[in-house]
Give the backbone structure.
Amino acid sequence: MAAFSDERIARILKSRGLKVTPQRLAVAQAFTKLNHPTAEEIFRFLEKEHPYIGLATIYRTLKLFIKTGLVKELSFPNIGTRYDINLEPHINVVCVKCGAIEDVENEEINKIMRRFANDGYEIVGCRFEVSIYCDDCKARRLKRSRRR
Amino acid sequence: MAAFSDERIARILKSRGLKVTPQRLAVAQAFTKLNHPTAEEIFRFLEKEHPYIGLATIYRTLKLFIKTGLVKELSFPNIGTRYDINLEPHINVVCVKCGAIEDVENEEINKIMRRFANDGYEIVGCRFEVSIYCDDCKARRLKRSRRR
DNA sequence: GTTGCTGCAAATAATTTGCACTCTC
DNA sequence: GAGAGTGCAAATTATTTGCAGCAAC
């Protein structure tokens, strides 16, 4: 998984005149361990080592990271809002049941983005996603239907 | 724009043992006039001719339509949750400023979906999206920056 | 006639904001 | 030391739910 080093985050924040705080570094570090987490997941993850961080700060920091171009926000029905540090165009394979997300590289996606850029669009971001039932949830569903 | 005839909606609802109500037909009809609307937009649109419909019913009907496979739900940061009647794989070109959404057909997308199907995924849905500033918002932004 | 459907209002969930205090620069 | 950043609690927004009455089949 891609990761944020404290040095990199500090450099980026400073270069924008923003302050480097333990909270901001902690949120960045959370992405090293968590996969497409929700704000709540980051909060619970950081509670252990940084019990002082408030949920509001997590939200504020995430908004800041989005504006700074460090993460991107993915809103979903049912499984909430997730944050992604993979900014390269890629496909999110999302299990609609459990919310597990897997990143898949894809050459077609790159082709599409190149075409849009050539067409003169002012591109701000992109999101490509295929919703599925993951193997685990498929198995669980099968078991449940047998039980009836 | 694709549309829902009363007959088609009635047929689908009946075939699933669901009741055909004026509210459900009205929500379906709203999609004939509105482009990727929010629940609120549908509500305000229907107020004129169907002042009796409650917002809760709009939400319930939309959830029902999603389950029935008539529409799909697209959650966005900033511009809220939109509902789309175009279920074919396509690209949503979304203005991050004003929320205008344009559908674009794309052959690469079809290729991607075929590949996933061949790979044995149990596909539930998909979503492909390029975020941009639309021409109107670009122009407005330019004017504002000149004003400074 | 029986249920499912609806409207309304209240409940819930997710996110944002105001404010006093704290820490980075 | 100044001002940005934070924690907490309250506010806001979007959506869901309980319940009594109404309407589709």
